Amino acid sequence: MSNFHEFFRVGRRSLPVLLLAFSVLQAEEKRPEQLRRIAFGSCATEHRPQPIWDSVVRQKPDLFLFIGDNIYADTEDMDVMKAKYAQLGSQPGYQKLLRTCPVLATWDDHDYGVNDGGEWYPKKAESQQLMLDFFGVPKESPRRQRPGVYGSYVFGPPSKRVQVILLDTRYFKSRPVKDSRSPEEKKQLNLVGWYIANTDPKGTILGENQWKWLKAQLREPAEVRILASSIQVVADEKGMESWGNFPHERKRLYDLIGTTGAKGVLFISGDVHFSEISKTDQGPYPLYDFTSSSLTDPEKEWAAAVNHYRVSAVAFAQPTFGLIQIDWDQPTPAITLQAYGLQGKVAFEKHICLDELPAK
Ligand SMILES: [Fe+2]
Which of 7, 19, 22, 178 has the highest CB neighbour count under 10 A? Predict the structure, then answer.
């Protein structure tokens, strides 16, 4: 809780933009003491209408997690990037969200600054500060003091704690390996992406400092841990960017959850312009990856690509956000994952008992 209090207390003093100051004031008044309803989403085109926010606000979330491609900046010009954040900030629906609940964010490639980008992007330090400015992260936050936007927050009293871990999958990421197969061959295999696995042991997604930090976070006490990765963690077959492009990094992540004794981990991800839930048995307990994308621009063709890990009834390709509900009142807390479309329509849902995700 303490760093969350600090986040808003300091943020209220230091924010230069009236709109953000207003949102932080609201967040102080409505600071969630316990999380029961966590909404999240990704991939929002800033210059297009964003009617999905009405649907988000209707669900009365305690917290919203904006987990990447929050704008489509795609630039090395920081004035252009700033103007695009301003466009998002001026969306009436997004302003309603800011009056409803706090927003925490990480980024993906387009808001980082370059499509499929990684450690080679030359403006990453500047882009980091702009992103943290927009989301009201205080100047004193550890997220300002180190390279990368990763951060961790714990909400709720003992026995009902939710830890939100926001990973940075861009700042340190190595170059992916291009898939040289022909379009015809890929079509036959139902692949839509451009990459194959990078098996160079030096290839990384998180970078060593973030790995060390993550290990320490996973040792913090919490009942539920929402681990936000901009790119998909579990689904790995369609050739788009994913943790599967760096198999040794993903194995390290699964192993780390086991060795730290971190119970209650649930991955959330975005990026792919459709929503689905994937599940793997390669971790210490069943690991679910709830992907929600896009808030504005779905891609039916990508939703139709192969994913043998999918456990949701469908892959949903309409404007969407995800909702995680935690029922703390059951003898064993229950988690419900739901993908929502416009007008509050539920596209798919999945129920998990928290005791399915125990420490080993
Ligand atoms: Fe992306």
Answer: 7
